[in-house]
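Budget justification note: compute hours in this period were largely spent on complex prediction jobs such as the one shown. Inputs:
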Amino acid sequence: MTAVANPPTERPGAARGRGSAPVALWARRGSAPVVLALVLVAGTAVFGGRFASALNLGNIALDSSYLLLIAIGMTFVILSGGIDLSVGSLLALSGVLTAYASRWGTPAAILVPLGVCALFGLANGVLVGRARIAPFIVTLAGLLFARGLAFAVSKEGNQVYIIPAELALTRVGQARFLGVGAPVWFALAVFAVALVVLNRSRFGQAVFAIGGSEEAAELMGLPVARVKTLVYVLSAVLTGLAGVLVAAQTQSGLPTIGEGRELEAIAAVVIGGTLLSGGAGSLSGTLAGVLLLKVIQNLINQVGTLTAYYQQVVSGAFLIVVVLVQSRLSRRGLR
Amino acid sequence: MTLQAVRPRDTTKLPQRIQAAGVYIAIAALLVFNLAFTPHFATVTNLRLQLVQVVPVAIVAVGMALVIATEGIDLSVGSTMALAAALIPLYIGYGVWPAIVVALAAGLAMGLASGWLVAFAGMQPIIATLGLLVAGRGLALVLADGRLVELFDPTLGALGNSAVLGVPVSVLIVIGVAVVAGVAMRRTAFGRRVLAIGGNRSAATLAGLPVKRTLVTVYAVSGLLAAVAGVLSTARQGASDPSFVGLLIELSAITAVVVGGTPLSGGRVRIVGTLMGALLMQLITATIIQHNLPDSTARMVQAAIIVAAVYVQRGRSAA
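Corresponding output:
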């Protein structure tokens, strides 16, 4: 299985590279952390303590943690050659269900949303993996359905369910450890596990193999349909976890949250160097991509004269520029 | 987006014919149902309202159909609508037509940008237009400072709300757009190039077709049509609302295209089917709302229909 073990580096062109291949590889896989470092230094240089304060960095970390959870699942999905557009709506659904189920105590408030999200992911996965419908369409329908369900549960948005402050969920969700909010630790723990699963398990290698070439994976006897199904379950459950944490943080479940989150997560994954066509990429890149997006948004907030709308302009332009530069550099490297 | 490794299925003639006519059958069934069970459905006012409401999605969907025919996708259309809407109040001081021209030019520019990124920079359409979706909406909000601006221009109002021989002007525009697009796709070399690119891009390149130029044109048309939809929405509301105009319309448009029988895998296009797809989704929403079912139900039903429509089409799109 060694051929499957390192598919990200084994693109046909890169393997035959003439010395300049490392440039290509770096451009695709390693540029996000470097850019992140540069942006952090630049931010500190311009805004000094206001940006680099523990409070502000803690806020960035907290803000990033929810997106990181979603983006980890999205990385698996994109690596397998798919896409998951339903995560933004699932985040809202999970939050609403957390708040709704909190009347029955903490275990229910966690298990109900995660269970529903798992079922949702299963439906996505079966439709993609077994029924072979384009992931884009399946998860687009999932986007509509989950948002509809979130609104239905909260009586068309007229009912906001509140999570009691004395619930264990609230206390854990709002706890701080070493000055950093609990969601950050949850996200880091999930990230560590995901790293091992993606790079050291059969499942992770199968994800790479399927994204690289589904036909080849099938011929090698990999359980393609099952792996593809699992990938969507993973994405939905991680999004569900993010929803639970958001609900615990805000002590409520709003059916309107998370709109556009799927785009943000995809952007983070792509900026992190994962190819949208699947088969090549990394979770560390995704982490850098998430942080990069959030740090840039935060920096724009620091400029008092710019409205929040500039965040969108810069995020969108940034996505295009990063992908453009990545593809330019990697192509030049391959020539 | 490619449908990966979809195996061609052996479909007999009759099911195929039902598949091809699926959207028409569904519309007919819904019309019959509404005529029978929905009070005040068969009034001229209501029918006209349904047509007027479907206008933005229908126009955007025609452009989307062309893009999808090249095996691409354009997610930026909603933001392009917002950009067009945001520009109108800024330029209406120079007169209504200059303002509309500026708005349309902005749409064209958005389309040219995505076309360039896809054709010349080699970016995947979903990423290029995703970037423009995020940036475009942000730009529209920056321009308008996030505010809704009411517009009291009589010409603009007429564009949005008047009718010729009982048919609303905006509906006539949709018909005009669809006729031009249909003729262009069926009767011109451009149309054949679009389908050739969607069918097999490398073969089209090897055959010496101007692939890049054609792609840029297709995305430019999509951007321009999105701007038209933005102008018409603004005219109808009598207000420029960059926060909400065109929000998620890319999804409705893609749905209309797919439900109307254009495969996401490119190489084929059905313009009339696309219009019918848009109409079908509108009728479903209207039926649900008129029977006092909540909006959330409408979304869930739409979701089920999208999946069902594509599932039924699988066999054909693989061929």
